[in-house]
Amino acid sequence: MITLENGAPPQRGVRRRRVLLLSVIAGLLIAVFGLPQLGLFGNPGCGIPLVTCTRVLFVGDSYTYVNDLPTTFANLAWSAGERVDTQTLANGGETLAGHVADAATASTIDAQTWNTVVLQDQSENPASAAYRQSEMYPAATQLVALIRHVGAQPLLFLTWGHQSGWPQDGLPTYATMQAAVDQGYLGLGAELDVPIAPVGAAWQTVVSARASPELWQGDGVHPTTAGTYLAACVFFATIFGRSPVGLSYVDGLPESEAAMLQRVAATTALTDHAHWAGP
Hints:
This protein is α/β, with parallel strands linked by helices and 279 residues long.
């Protein structure tokens, strides 16, 4: 125990100053030497003082929360030396119109200094032209205005089609459904001048190249760990404008599998950047 000359313990204020000093030193070391890449620390988010941090809010449904896409993205970014805090607003089957109707959405957007707010509509609805005009686009227009009002960047999460399409709406195959989903998000991005994270396009590249892409769970709808990891790589490339190729965080996947997904994400989001960046 440290004592003063008279044998009394140091005052609490002295201890607090020491803790603060150590925190500042740790932050400077991480900023200068890139210690996250050495695996010496876990992801602290925005908890380190004097270090740049990116705050991202994900607004969506189960495509966002299954396998915890926001945390996978944050961990991937941390392995690249990027400090990231994420928060999620997502319920199963939730629509953007549902988020508009929920008071928690506006209060959460207004409560933090977000850098990016990701918008993802329910998985099927963007493929329906009638739904887009009646609900998706009006709801997105309100949310984008709110996001921009607080100084954040809106970003559309272009999702993947179902493995067997959506026959009930006249889309009998994955390819036809993916094309319809693409049309929904590309149209919205052009209308509101909002950039797109082209996750669905990256999925299509993998599906086209592999007989067993292993991106869907058994339900043919929700993502496997590999599917979520591919989405996280696309978000990393889109938000930071950097390639995820070579990053050490693989979320438990075989390194060869993670490397392939990293390459696909980089090519989709960066090589074809102009296609997704908005007008």
